[in-house]
UniProtKB/TrEMBL annotation:
Keywords carried by this UniProt record: Membrane, Transmembrane, Transmembrane helix
Domain of life: Bacteria
Transmembrane intervals: 20-44, 64-84, 96-114, 120-139
Keyword Transmembrane helix recorded: yes
Protein name per Swiss-Prot or TrEMBL: Uncharacterized protein
Length: 142
């Protein structure tokens, strides 16, 4: 009985770092979703009168991409908050969500680079480093 309690205590101690990093990622994704939502609202409020067709096409693409990123960041935030609650209870979570988040963040950083916004690369790379660290920490448990 005592040995079983020690194993649970060790497991909880090992899950402390991934738990807090997951909470941090969830908060960052929530903020990203909120700021992207504000950007989407601003894009949809822009007037399209007197704009050249090429600029109108670029505006339409920006609206679509911003809407997709807003929805995806919100989904990741919800899933990360769910993982945080599981980790808080001592339940080991699968690493697949963190792999998906890593791929999404790489695509987000690539989108920032291609659109010429180099300042938008740093926070996704920090999220990527957090996700990799969580994957490595969860990999040590099994």
């Amino acid at each position: 009985m005592e040995n079983q309690l020690d194993e649970k205590a060790v497991l909880r101690a090992q899950l402390t770092n991934p738990r807090w990093m997951t909470l941090t990622l969830a908060i960052i994704c929530t903020l990203f979703a909120l700021f992207t939502l504000l950007g989407v609202l601003v894009l949809f409020r822009l007037s399209s009168e007197g704009i050249k067709p090429e600029a109108l096409h670029a505006l339409l693409i920006a609206k679509i991409l911003a809407s997709i990123f807003c929805i995806l960041y919100a989904i990741f935030a919800l899933l990360l908050f769910n993982n945080f609650s599981k980790l808080r209870k001592g339940i080991v979570v699968p690493k697949m969500l963190y792999f998906a988040l890593s791929v999404f963040v790489i695509l987000s950083a690539a989108n920032s680079i291609f659109s010429g916004q180099l300042g938008g690369v740093f926070l996704p790379l920090i999220i990527l480093l957090f996700a990799i660290k969580i994957i490595l920490d969860l990999g040590k448990l099994k």
